[in-house]
Structure prediction request, 191 residues.
Amino acid sequence: MLGWRANTPNDLPAVGTLRTSACIGPISDAVPPEPGTFVDTGARRSIFTIARCTTALLFPFVTSQVGWDTSIAISNTSRDPLGTPAQAGPVTLYYYGVGEKNEPAPRPQTSVVIPAGGQLVFTLATGNPAFGIVAAPGFQGYLFALCQFQFADGFAIVRGAVDSNGESGTMASYAAQKIPVCVQPGQRQPL
Prediction:
């Protein structure tokens, strides 16, 4: 029997896979053993995997092109009145799309650690250097945010520029989509 007590603030137990090997001998006294009565499983096999508790958020449309800009807020809601263990971790942003002049999408970037109850707030046009997020001016596409904590929520506001009369530009807002992630890399759960 295996067991452990989670220590979330210290990131324990460590993420990884337990592998072991075993050999099972003959279950018959016959010499040689009868077919199907001897099993050799000496190969190492995975017993279980401890995976990091994460949240994947999809922002399906973001832009900072031609007078438009997108404001993004990602909240770490693991601090609550329900007794949820507080978690902290960085957020890695993955950009998919192109720049105004067909430049490639920005490279992935990782924020500083977002504490329980904290938020990562930035705009594409200016970023947020205090949180390790650089600007992505001229980008348009979609954005994945992989949060190294559970219970992340995201919100985006897409705004047009103020016109020559000082009127606010067009605005649209939406909540990020939470993407279920399987334990195995490269797989997404269907909704």
